[in-house]
Amino acid sequence: MKLFIYKTLFVFLLIYLLFQLTIGLVVKKIKEEIYNFKSKENIELLKKKIRIELNYAIKKDKYLDENDAKLINDFLKKIKSELQNQ
Amino acid sequence: MSNPKIKYYYYLIIFFYFFSFFTIGILTAKDYGIHIEEKFHRSNGFYWLNYVLSFTNLNNLKEISLIKFKSISDYTLSSVAYYNKYGIIFDVPAALIEILFNINEPKKFYQLRHILSFIIFFISTIFFFKILLNRFKNINIAILGTTFYILSPRIYGDSFLYKDILFLSICTISIYSFFKVIDNFNYRNLIFFALFSSLATSTRIIGIFLPIMFLIITFLEILYRKPKKDFIVKNILCLLLFFLFLIIHWPYLWSSPFNNFLLVFKSIKTDLVNIKILFNGIFISNEFIPYSYLPRWIVISTPTIHIILFLIGYYFIFKRFLIKFIKIEECSKNHDLWHSLNEKKDFIIFISLSSIFLFCIINNVKLYNGWRLLYFLNIFFVYIITYCIYLFFIKIRLKNKIVYLNLFFAISFLIIVQRMALYHPYQSLYFNGFLSKENKNSYEGDYYGLSTSKAILEILKKDKEAKEENKIINIGVASHTPLQRGIEFIDINKKDLVRIVGQEFNSAKYIYKNNISEVDINYNKKYNIPENFKKIDELIVDGIIIYEIYKNLKIK
User: Fold this and answer.
1) pTM for the complete prediction?
2) Does A66 lie at the interface with B, CB-CB under 8 angstroms?
3) Interface test with B, best of A21, A25, A41, A46 (most B CBs within 10 A)
């Protein structure tokens, strides 16, 4: 009986440690990623990047690819016509 | 030690040893600045003193405590009524002494607390010595171990600032009473253990590990052999007494003992601040501290000799228990995991340290300001260091070379003392040689804000207008340190000359900056020093920036 209890406790401890060091670690990483993504610092960083990109776009002669420009134009026309039909 | 002359000689050495330590501590206590949480704890003391007195007829005392409580105001201070789960065993007696001795000068009532804190730490060193003497039965080893306990720079530096060291001190006394229970399982020892472990638990809820360890040992005893009825009764009584003492001395539990006790556990998640901390050069959230956080902090902020001896001692203790665990039999003559009372004591220390350490790392316990929340682990570290010394003594005794070993330790202690003197009074910020000078500022600096009052005084000394014309000067703060609280520690006539303006740097004539930030300064620029400010002063100790002072060039 005594040996059984010792062995059971030991196995449970090992399983717990194994779980924490494998799945637990992955869960912790994911949680941390989400936390960092939602953090104020990250939002500030994104804002900064958007500003840089907008400035870059303004300064460039031709920012959009011809096909992309046509696609966006068609899309906007479609939206506009749908809105007018309402 | 049967010879009375030798006994007398040893007693004399022990007396002078502790007397010297006490004298040094008391004489240097005044050098330590105010730390940022002292005002809160003073407030906590009067709040609970007033509450306790409301059950008595001591109306005069109650009125004074209420007046004192209301006089403690500060916009940076958290509400005691909200953060009311702190223990009272230091704060309330300190508040009572302040009233009884009519201490009204701010500097004096904080210095009183520093001295009281050191006295408690000093008492704990005596108990630690008794723990080692109880275990190793050798005065030489006990003195060496106690010296390692005292010469832990961060612990010594914090011994004047209560908080974490108060918990460490009470834990030391509790462990001594635990050892006494193991030696003699009588009612007297059980009552003392229940009392001190309850005091430890109210100081820091993690002190609950003491009764848990007691239960684990009881469980292992029951597993080994069928217990007597008396054994079970005494165990139950000890646990009941633990809760009884806890309720008696912790007024927070009086209104609703069970619910409030559970609330303390819940508050661990909610009340601990969620901030960014500087660790290894990058700002990380203390919600997700890396596994390396705790080991790395311990390794870089503890003297090298401590670490080496600890690793050797831990290896041998671990090996011993591993072998014993593997060899457990269904029916054995000796106990499964220990063969003597001394081994049982080693087991308690080994399991306590390993389980708390692993628990904190695996469960991602929120830590900040280095490892100060776990300074109580130093008891176990130094115990294991002493175990290592004990092994050395056994090996070397045969070769009659103990004097060389003592000489080696004496030289090591002198080196540590020299380093501690270099850091004085900022031993709380000690880093060892593992960390290069360039990297010393890649970790949090003066988190206690010990330098705040000194920095304010330096500014007042440097500023002509303040010195000669008594003009008020505005000081900005470029760090997460409530500089406001540093004003408490300067003379009353100088207090009115200072106005803290926080991060409104436009109106500041000077800016105080230290290496503490709750935000990532790479993205959040709120602590950036404006271009019109120039550094005029700094305090650097062993490469660690304690503080920097900047002056506004636009304001003459």
Assistant:
1) 0.92
2) no
3) A41
